Give the backbone structure.
Amino acid sequence: MEITVTVNGEPRTADVEPRMLLVHLIRETFGLTGTHIGCDTTSCGACTVLLDGVPVKSCTLFGVQADGRSVTTVEGLASGGELHPIQAAFKEHHGLQCGYCTPGMMLVGAALIERNPAPTEEEVRFAISGNICRCTGYMNIVKAIQAAAAARTGSGADESAA
Amino acid sequence: MAQTEEIRGIGHRVRRVEDDRFIRGKGTYVDDVKLPGMLHMAILRSPYAHAIIRGIDTSRAEAHPGVVAVVTGELLAQHNLAWMPTLSYDTQAVLATDKVRFQGQEVAAVIAEDPYTAKDALELIEVDYEPLEPIVTPQRALEPDAPVIRTDKEGKTDNHIYDWETGDKEATDRAFAEADRIVALDTHYPRCHPAPLETCGCVADVNPATGQATIWMTSQAPHAIRTVFALVAGLPEEKIRIISPDIGGGFGNKVPVYPGYVVATAASLLLGRPVKWIEDRTENLISTGFARDFHMHGELALKADGTMTGLRSRSSPTRAPSTPTPSPQSSRWACSAS
Ligand code: FES
Ligand code: FES
């Protein structure tokens, strides 16, 4: 069936099987491979994207469920050449190793600091509790998300968070 | 030597070269590789830990629209590809022929135009299994009446793999003979799985014109794997190129040569088109290398004041039916024991 999804601000139309998962629509049909797949049980969060601004696991939605809605993937985080504060903070605070969980972690973080400009460590850990990282041990991911929040509000709390 | 911003070392920040592409979603992991004409492969796995395969009927799967081929051990055997060497001087089945030796073992593979069709067709393959007694503990494996798992090894009459001893036996025995107190403990060091966030997979591209094989692979050991591929295929190493692009974690899980890599490559060779195989998480957890699972007995010799004078330990690790890598720690599948 034919669907139209606004992907990173641009309307995209596709003719898809009703059973096609959103993550495959994004990766295979739209060619945006920054969204990853890590499991088949909704456990890992590697496939996280924002659906109308809210983090969702795109392996657990059908593509057709995104019809008429807007999806943000990791490719849509930076505006032009400029990194989103969450991207800059992940780089600065070594919030990634292999990079496989990173798009999902950053999108969850971006959505969190959008609604909570100064999350506590506990709030960050709760927000990323649906996302697994097998490399880093989470410490620097938490640091990076808090630093991004601070950078965004210009509160200068970056140093204390680090 | 003085450290400056130019001469970096301990205490200096290191800018990682890969971060820029990863934070922009521009990495290239194996599943991101897409080649013209590429086909997709899915693997049918055994639900039994130990069973004779009496027959496999692939006709319904082959007739399914979008399916290009169904590969079985029997087909591979015709090309002398049903068994392969491991990195530990053992052999392992690529696709099972005579019997399955662990739960999740690769039994057949479907190659189709798209991954959904490949998975659909798996359900159309009929395998006639005759279940045998499974072995799930190393203790049972060593009992004299235990069924033999490696019947493919000529003259094999038990499940014993190896004995390995280290230390100074005489001095240790003396310490225990002279000890004021000896304490002993039986314990189990549980199994763990590395579970890298990216599962295993490959894109195999054997060029029918040049015979050159290029394989993008989730591998931590591309050079060793090239050697195994050369042995299996009987090709010179320069005809084989293994590319490890960005890898989503490995932790030792991505050292062995898994049958999926070999079947995808054989399929690409047979069909003259690139073949992608990406395992799912369930497959990764049940069929790829795990670690530990040691059943251990430890004894400590002590003086009356608590000084430790001797330590003895004996361990029976659960081992794979085939030993895929040189490390005694990382083995594949539970069944037999040492
Ligand atoms: S791939 Fe979606 S939660 Fe793991
Ligand atoms: S950086 Fe490898 S899984 Fe998180």
Residues 157-162 of chain A have pLDDT under 50 and may be disordered. The domain at 2-76 of chain A is CATH 3.10.20.30 (Ubiquitin-like (UB roll)). Residues A 96-102, 133-136; B 197, 249 surround FE2/S2 (inorganic) cluster (ligand 2) (CB under 6 Å).
